[in-house]
Design a protein that fits this description.
The complex is a heterodimer of chains A (about 280) and B (about 300). Chain A is mainly alpha-helical. In chain A, about 75% of the residues lie in helices and about 0% in strands. Chain A has a domain of about 170 residues: MetI-like fold (Orthogonal Bundle), CATH 1.10.3720.10. Chain A has 14 helices and no strands. Chain B is about 70% helix and about 0% strand. The longest helix of chain B has about 35 residues. Classes of the chains: A mainly alpha (about 280), B mainly alpha (about 300).
Amino acid sequence: MNYPTRARLIKQFNHVISYVLLIGVGLIVITPLFAMVTTSIKQMSEYMVWPIKIFPTTAQWSNFAAVFEMAPYIRVALRTAGLGLLVTFIVTFSSSMIGYAFARYPVRGSKPLFFLVIGLMIIPYIVVLIPQYILYSRLHLTNTYWPWIFNALVGNPLYIFLFRQVFLTFPRELEDAAEVDGCGPFRIYSQIFLPNAKPVIATVMIFAFGAVWGDYMMPLILLNDDKTLLSVKIATSYSNPQGVWLITIAMAANIIYMMPLILVFFLAQKYIIKGVVTSGLKG
Amino acid sequence: MVAARLRLTRTQRRTITFYLFISPWLLGFILLTIIPLIVGFLISLTNYEGLSVINLHFVGTDNYVRAFNSDADARFSLGRTLMWGVYNLPAWLILSFVMALILNQNIKGHGFFRTLYYLTSVVPIVAAITAWKVILDKNFGWLNGFLSIFRPGTAIGWLSDYALQGMTMIAVWTGLGAGMVIFLAGLQNIPDELVEAARIDGANSWQVFRYVTLPLMTPIIFLQLILGLIGVFRQLDLPLVLTQVGLARGAVPPRQIYLYMMHVYRQIFISNRWGYAFSLIWLLFIGVAILTLVVFYTEKYWVYTERPEEGS
């Protein structure tokens, strides 16, 4: 390519600006994560100094042990993970089934109902959660995990949408052949469509687990301290007897807390990003 | 079974199957959305206090009148929410769009940067806010430490007097990845031929952006704007977690981030004014619906739509 010198200069200039911005924003993005790591191995006295010290003089690894001593971390984590997995399986099952129906059964009423599914995404969840809270408390279901199960059974609009988009692309012959062989609708869904939708299943399962693991609002509103989940536990633990919040130990707790999500992200980046893109582009 | 099947046409059978398949959602929609919404509305017409129903009585539109006339805090919190939108929406939209534009050039290492920018989106809110407390702390925060290099002794209260700006930083940090990835996918859908053709016609980079890329991206910008707008008004997680992390359930939020939903939350869980809180929720709901419709109305003026039927 023979660019005129001026054009080449502009191109190079453009390139430099691009990298400056990329690296600059990259540094801003990484700094809080970096701050998490160094804070988690500081003593409180090293955190509370001015001018600030970025690194501690000696790494205070005992902060990570204190995470488990100062709060019943493992018990709450296991509880949260158990509930997360249960919800993940239920919501993936229900959403895929509902998405399948919307994709493959274009019967009367299916279109307006689908718009309703999508439209519901616009209602702020909190608008429904607080009235739900009244119903749950009248039914004596607060401080239980039933609300999570119910919400999972109902399916999630975003996941329904993701499944529908994928099931729409499957060829018609797949169904017809199975129907000729005498397969019922549920068997066609579970034995032909579902096994061929593994990437979406992975995406939805990751989203669903992350949603329970990271959610703060539902455990805060629906559960007491004896049954609460990890997010609320971490946010409200790790103060010393004088009531001072020990941010260094809290930070260690948060690092352990977010590790599973970070690991899954690195393993399954491709699926996650694809899921976000599908939901954003055609929602 | 066979006899039953014979009496139904294929269409009827398929209709029944469809409704069976979606029955969990349909049931849930009625029980967990419609009924709570109606119950919420009915409660908004009463003086319900969440404890007993002995003193419960119908108060008509009193709660709504009160929200408009005699609740200075409601007006204040609405103002804060609007300011939150003014800070957060443009910052988030522009930054994610610009980063997507940069990454869309065939630049070395774009996969690495995309992963890096997206990483923060998977950080749970409690962890994100704890991390940012270290950055934004007034006395020992990294941001003030950095600013002190240029102006020694900087002590800006990013979590108190300037909490709205501080919260914007947190929101942009957590939202950048998702916004950028969506814009990036949109950019990659723009056919190369269009850009090539514009270049052959002598358009420079800015003109290509202004007359090809930007118009073709307007549908995605529009969608992000709508979702962002709804997110602004329903924002409760960020101010609530910012208030509660390291403190307690009843902790008083900084005035700067006393958003509308924070006001609602406190009406219910601190003051037990359920009836009043539900009137606030319904007002918000109506307000957001109207605002969304207004934005939809502007669509035809600036959002590009394909009209394949229209020849030249």
